[in-house]
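Lab notebook, bench 4. Still working through the backlog of constructs that have no structural model yet. Next entry is a single chain of 340 residues. Request: give me the structure tokens for it.
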Amino acid sequence: MTTYRNNLPQFDGTILLTDSGLETTLIFHDGIDLPAFAAYPLMETDSGRETLARYYRRHLSIAADHGTGFVLEAPTWRASRDWGAELGHGPEDLARLNHAAIGFLSDLRASARGVRPVVISGNIGPRGDGYVADTAMTAAEAEAYHAEQIGWFAETDVDMVTAVTLSTVAEGVGAIRAACKRGLPVVVSYTVETDGRLPDGTPLGTAFEQTDAETDGAAAYFMVNCAHPDHFRDALAAGSGWLERIGGVRANASRLSHAELDAAEELDAGNPAELGHDYARLRRLLPNLVVLGGCCGTDHRHVEAIADCCVARTAPDRPAAVRNLPGGVLLPPFFKEHLQ
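Model written out:
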């Protein structure tokens, strides 16, 4: 049974940690080969599921130590039709594996101790390469593509859908429309290049504003992922009202560009302590930033450093910006309708 689908705790200002760079952790720390950068095939074996369980439990323990909630993101970033075909998985296989991933997270949530709330998110990735913008794909095409995986999630206990590492507004709009048609709260996370713009050149703030305009503000909130804070801090500092729509960040610890990361043969894990302080500065810029985690190259050490800087030091003095929103900055029309 879904727990938070109609009442996401992110809307009352609750701080929720999430995980780090799942795929880079599996490849560089656990020595696991991930063709197409896909983690979802690990659901097929006992050993794969145990590896994933250890990964998530390590992060859940950090949330328990800091008294925060947690967003459990499914290992399904590549579990959509085009990427599945590269790995020999057809729609029936993918439906089964997406269902299994959410069931796996439901079991983890039930066994978690000292962590509340725990939100289960169906994670979807870009149809193409997240670092290379597919400017030819329309919003309608993106909606049709992502509707399949989102439909599988809707049949499970999932609380929400998070689309990460998107590089065009069209794909973000399509993912939002697909999720709304299935009654699922949805978050869109855009990635940026070192200049603070999406890979197709769209300024970050413009991307959020355009996405809201084309979807009637239906996204629960927005996120930024797979870029170092230095890459988008100036864009945030120059921002205005759209800053209130950013509810989460999953940054890289590496300052390398996407092209440099793609070409790198060794992991650049950056400095966990430094990244933690970067997040503390981001929270001063973003009044509604409540979901904190990492992306490529980060691991549990980075999430712990983020928690040390952003929870223990700032939670007691946390402004009530999210709780007191007369116009509902973070509460989109979808939730207004369902919570009345």
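Notes after review: The first helix runs from residue 22 to 29. The longest strand covers residues 118-124. Flag for follow-up if needed.
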